[in-house]
Specification:
299 residues; alpha+beta; Alpha-Beta Plaits; 2 domains; two-stranded antiparallel sheet; 11 helices
């Protein structure tokens, strides 16, 4: 008999609240945001790889000694704008003999046969870090490199880099625009879900108000519940994203090149925070609304 009474009291206290429906709806909305966030992360990584695949050719003075070549390579590798791969500076030495072989292989013409000499110069090929690949910054880098002792000339395909930067900028603006619209729609969706869930609690709120409960006392259980629902929904959405990523990486090996674990974990944390904040604010607004309504407006 006592157990039945306690269950009855608990039911009256909590009301008929669709907890599972709210968590499911918020989790689904956050999962959609997470999917688009993953798209942005992988697109950003792809953009960096494209930018870092472009090389800047540093042609050297003739007759440099081995000591001078080594010193020059160390100088170039120490520059902050040089790209790194697995803690290795992307500075590659190309002798004039290698350059001649590559030219002959591409054109099929042996220019050394009728010139009688190899007019090419030894060179270093530098890959520039993605965050230093802007057109204006590359010009500054070119002037700086040409001022180093032993460097004859620096060349890069400026038109190609400008075209890549312009296209990447346009694509980024489109993706950011879609992301902003998506976040706005999801916020409205979560807000309406919480409001609909609290609609079934409007008479319970009024009953508590009629017996003299303060606004803070009435709001606290609903805000606590909404906060935990947001956290739980964020965790569920993050878990689904993680499983989806692992499946995608298993099916498409090349996709691993675009992964960025640090940004992905930050995205998952952001989903939890977003779910918590939106759930809290939506619940706060809804409860405040029902507290201000008259009894006739509740029907």
């Amino acid at each position: 008999m006592t157990k039945q009474n306690s269950k009855s009291v608990k039911k009256k206290k909590l009301g008929n609240y669709p907890h599972a429906m709210v968590v499911f709806s918020i989790s689904l909305a956050l999962f959609v945001i997470g999917l688009f966030g993953l798209l942005l992360i992988h697109a950003g990584k792809l953009s960096d790889l494209v930018k870092e695949s472009i090389e800047m050719q540093v042609y050297l003075d003739r007759n440099l000694t081995e000591v001078q070549l080594v010193r020059l390579q160390k100088t170039l590798a120490a520059k902050e704008y040089v790209a790194y791969k697995q803690d290795t500076a992307q500075v590659r030495y190309i002798s004039k003999e290698e350059g001649a072989k590559a030219f002959i292989g591409e054109t099929g013409e042996d220019f050394t046969a009728f010139l009688g000499d190899n007019p090419l110069r030894d060179a270093y090929a530098l890959k520039i870090a993605a965050n230093h690949s802007g057109s204006a910054e590359l010009k500054v880098i070119k002037n700086e490199l040409e001022g180093i002792d032993g460097v004859y000339e620096v060349q890069y395909v400026a038109s190609l880099i400008e075209s890549i930067n312009e296209n990447i900028q346009k694509i980024s603006l489109v993706l950011i625009g879609f992301a902003a619209i998506l976040v706005f729609v999801v916020i409205i969706l979560i807000n309406n879900t919480v409001k609909l869930a609290l609609y079934s609690q409007r008479f319970l709120i009024r009953s508590m108000q009629l017996v003299g409960a303060t606004s803070f006392f009435i709001q606290r259980p609903f805000l606590n519940r909404a906060t935990w629902q947001g956290i739980m929904s964020g965790i569920i959405a993050s878990g689904l994203l993680y499983l989806l990523m692992q499946y995608a990486y298993h099916e498409i090996e090349e996709l691993r090149l675009l992964r960025n674990d640090e940004q992905t974990y930050m995205l998952m944390l952001a989903l939890v925070v977003i779910g918590c904040i939106i759930g809290f604010l939506s619940s706060y607004r809804a409860v405040r609304k029902y507290l201000r309504m008259s009894l006739d407006e509740l029907y």
